[in-house]
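Journal club prep, notes for RB
We'll compare a predicted complex against what the paper describes. Inputs for the nickel (II) ion case:
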Amino acid sequence: MVRTIVIMGDPVLRTRAEQVGSFDEGLRCLVDDMFETMYHAEGIGLAANQISVLKQVLVVDVRDEKDAAAGRMALINPRIVKASSEVHKETEGCLSVPGLEEVVQRPLDIKVEASDVYGAPVSVNAGALLARALQHEIDHLEGILFLDRVSPFKRRLLMKKWKKTRAERAEK
Ligand code: NI
C-alpha cells in the first residue's frame, strides 16, 4: 500500500525513531509499504519517519548504479560503525523536501550494521551512491534533514525558496 509521505514542517521528521524490538509480520508489511511508497514517488530511499512511523526502518534501492551490485535493501535499527575520512560532495534531494536540492558533503565509504526484517544481523560496506543514500536515510531516523548539513548561508537561501514555493502551491 502506498502511504502518504510527510513533508518538511511535520514534527515527525524532527523526531528520533525508536528501536524495533519485534521482527513480526507487521514489520514486514511496513517494509513492503515503504518500498511501494518509495517506488511510487520515484525515490531511491525512504525512512519510516517519512510515512509517520517512528521506527528505525529504512529502505533504499540504488541498483541503477553500476558500482552497487546489492543496492536494494531494507535495514532495521541501522547504525554507522565506520566512516571513511575521505569525503565526497554530491547534490541531494529528499522526498519530504520536494523542489529543493543542494550539495552535501558526506564520507565516501561507510560500514553499517543493522538487522534484516527477520532480526538477523547484517553488515553493509557501502560506497558511492549507496553510502550517500544510507547516510541520508539514517539521518532521517535521527530527525536530521539534508538541509541541516549545508552551510547556514545556503540553508537560509533554501528556506526562502521553500517558503516561496510552498506559498505558491497553497495559492493554487
Ligand atoms: Ni530524505
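Talking point for the session: Residues 93 and 100 are 6 Å apart (CA to CA).
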